[in-house]
Amino acid sequence: MRYLAYHVSLFATVPSIVNAALNAGFFDQSHMTRHFIKTFGLTPTQWKMINIKR
């Protein structure tokens, strides 16, 4: 969960989901996406579209 919280904070500063995943300590984007969906019920892109563009 700590990695996901860090990843979410990276969305505002890192335009690439791949780079955000790697910077948050995940092995690759799919690794982070699996954990993200399990926790939030959305893909990172879906979450970003809902929460960052406000």
From TrEMBL:
Classification via InterPro entries: Homeodomain-like_sf (IPR009057), HTH_AraC (IPR018060)
A matching Pfam family: HTH_18
Native organism: Acinetobacter indicus
Annotated signal sequence range: 1-20
Keyword vocabulary terms for this entry: Plasmid, Signal, Transcription, Transcription regulation
Annotated ranges, domain HTH araC/xylS-type: 1-50
GO molecular function: DNA-binding transcription factor activity; sequence-specific DNA binding
Lineage: Bacteria, Pseudomonadati, Pseudomonadota, Gammaproteobacteria, Moraxellales
Protein's name in the database: AraC family transcriptional regulator
